[in-house]
Amino acid sequence: MSYLIHDCETTIHKSYKRTANPFDSKNHVVANGFKRKGSGVFTHYHGADKGMQHLPILPEDKMLVGFNYKFDLLWHWKRPELQDFFRRGGKIWCCQYAEYLLQGQIPSAQMCSMDDIVVKYGGKLKIDEVKALWKAGVDTVDIPEDLLLKYLGGEDGDINNTEKIFLGQVAKAREQGQLTDIMERMEGLLATTEMEFNGLYINTEVAYEDKAMLEDELTALTLKLDAAIPALPDGCEFSWSSPIHKSAILFGGSIKYSKWTPYLDEQGNQIYAQKKEDYLLRNGEPYVSCESAHNEHWLVADKYAGGKRQGEYKTKQVSVPDETKPKGRQCDYTFKLQGYTTPEQEWKSKLTDGEDKPVYKTGKEIIEILGNRDIDFLKALSMQSKVQKDLSTYYLVEDANGKQSGMLTCVMPDNIIHHKLNHSITVTTRLSSSDPNLQNLTRADWDEDLGRAKSLVKRMFSSRFGPEGCMIEIDYSQLEVVVQGLLSGDPQLIADLIARVDFHCKRLSAKLHEEYEAVLVKAKDGDHPDHKRYKIMRTKVKETTFQMAYGAGSTSIAATTGQTKDEVEEIMAAELVLYPGIKEFYDTVQRVCEQSRYPTNIRESLPDKPGVEVQLGRGFYQSPTQARFVFTEVPQEAYLRKRTGKDAGFYRPYFQNYPIQGVGGQIVQYVLGRLFRFFNKHNNFNGQAVLVNTVHDCIWVDTVNKEFAVALAPHLKKIMESVPEILKELFNIDCPVPFPVDVEAGHNMLDLHHVM
């Protein structure tokens, strides 16, 4: 296959959280470098010329190769020759992404640099003068041309090193049986590049209206919570920022405070420091202080009868209390708070309270868990935490120094946010998002008390096409369960997936020992007298099974869903009966990983013996879809060492988590690639529809109006549901399960309604 190595050097102005922001007119490409298969390196120096640079792509070029290649592509994305290259089927290879996949997502391979891996592929570490200049703040356009071009296209420059890495990676991908997977993932990288380039439109008017409303709600919630603090003794002040105080008010405990305490005599009177005062004498005894004596005091006071002082009043210095100097000292006291609920033992921290009793963690995740408990104070605290998170993360806040933070600081003058979609960071190969993170938007569940969604964040994400514009969200239904069926081959799970069984109702029926059809009616029929109760139970089962699929244990699931541990374990037990093939699959992953174990140079301390280090091993599992997952051992707890006789071992939940999440993410990336080709082929339907985001198991598309969205939806649905055909084509897998999707549309991402 004919390939073209490509790299560009750009100015480095940072704006909207992007260094060398390609969407900021202050930045431009300074130099491009290329190398075609079998030829030498050729470079183009553009200097201060901000014009768009032509890419020398020839008809025979089949692949473009780069390192962290999305960065380079974004600078040239709308070049006609590049889009034509894609329309005739041209491929890409990103060496950074490929290395991450080849290494099974181990930490050292996540977002690796060229210098990290070039030597092992036969390349050489390049000159570092250019890096030193960048580090010193010198912009690329001010670096001498000859030095920059040597850095880019010299013998040890980026272009030659990229070619060596690329050829070595292709050979390794063939050896490890990953070439097909990596090529398909590169298609997904094209889709996310398109999404980053298009960005997401933010209705700033709506955003700032909602921000003001949330600030009012936050004030009201804060006043409500402050009012719930019990009356405190003098000198004791409650602080929400203190982990000890916060634990005490939630779970009960004593808070220590200090206040000035007077010294008292035996009668309980204040003791003062002493001072000297002159007193008048009467009958030879101190009578009254000279300063406070009245006429009648002076008249009866003793006088000298003779001598030099004859006729003068007799006085004596007397020690008296100085009432301006009461005696006392700062003393420590404790005040006990009763608390509102009982903590989970795993929340215990290393801190202790005023009575040396345990202090429990009160982070955001725990506050969210507590909000599931039916206690008004905890619900208010949880809501306050959510509102604070939304304001600081997705709107805008300003610190005491006037520094602003929050998602709205990333909105460019055209109201577009160009977020980053990262392919090479997670341990499972699922995508992540940053600057800002638009894959972790707060859920918009309806809140009866508020009379609206708990979070309004999605309302600001609206169509760029004006009032008539329409957003589409296509979401895989229960993707984690479908992937379990694909990988485990459990016959009953497969049959239920084909029959489109409501898994949450089925699991609930197994837990309650009731007929599935009866539970389904109660949970789905809003008119049924038991609907509300069964709907709540179904939601808890849904949350439980979702977390089970990703390896969570009964204790953590109970805490996050508001159930008891026994309730969760009932659902888990029912799962084993319903779908035993799932556990058998996890057992297989563990067995394969243990068989492939090899020692590493990684050493970590035992949990209960900080000074004792143990050597860790690694093993891997490769899925039928070529996805490679490398697992690293962890130091064992004392009870496990006693049971297994080993100081280190693999962590079972990872065997449940990585393959399910990873293959799910892999499938989404394959589909993203096909969606990109569909949109590219039709030139984004003459600008009437654009890909804008992917959030785990779903895709966002922005379209010109609702009519166009409704017409486009069946085509998108068909592509996303074609997973069985894709797996057959790529890996000759006879996929036994369907991959259904739900399609919703609306002017913004909060107000969506089913289209199909």
Describe the fold and architecture.
The chain is α+β, with helices and mostly antiparallel strands and 756 residues long. Among the domains are: 3-176, Ribonuclease H-like superfamily/Ribonuclease H (Nucleotidyltransferase, domain 5), CATH 3.30.420; 204-261 and 332-410, no CATH class; 272-326, no CATH class; 491-578, no CATH class. The strands form eleven sheets. It has a five-stranded mixed β-sheet, sandwiched between helices. Strands 27-28-21-29-30 form a five-stranded antiparallel β-sheet. The protein is globular and about 135 Å long.
What's this entry about, in short?
This protein has 756 residues and is of the alpha+beta class. It has 26 helices and 30 strands.
- Rg value: 35 Å
Question: Describe the biggest sheet?
Answer: 5 strands, mixed
Estimate the strand proportion: 15-25%
SS-based structural class?
alpha+beta
Low-confidence stretches: none
**Strand tally:** 30
Topology:
Layout: E1 3-10, E2 29-36, E3 41-45, E4 63-66, H1 69-76, H2 80-87, E5 91-94, H3 95-102, H4 114-117, H5 129-135, H6 145-153, H7 158-175, H8 179-198, E6 200-201, H9 204-227, H10 243-251, E7 253-262, E8 272-282, E9 285-289, H11 295-300, E10 315-326, E11 328-337, E12 348-352, E13 358-360, H12 364-370, H13 376-394, E14 397-398, E15 404-405, E16 416-417, E17 420-422, E18 432-434, E19 446-447, E20 452-453, E21 470-476, H14 479-488, H15 491-498, H16 503-512, H17 516-524, H18 531-549, H19 554-561, H20 565-578, H21 580-595, E22 598-606, E23 609-622, E24 628-632, E25 634-635, H22 638-644, E26 648-649, H23 652-681, H24 683-687, E27 689-695, E28 698-703, H25 706-720, H26 723-731, E29 741-746, E30 753-754
Parallel strand pairs: 1-4, 4-5
Antiparallel strand pairs: 1-2, 2-3, 6-16, 7-11, 8-9, 8-10, 12-13, 14-15, 17-18, 19-20, 21-28, 21-29, 22-23, 23-24, 25-26, 27-28, 29-30
Helix pairs in contact: 3-7, 8-23, 9-13, 12-13, 14-15, 14-21, 14-23, 16-17, 16-18, 16-20, 17-18, 18-19, 19-20, 20-21
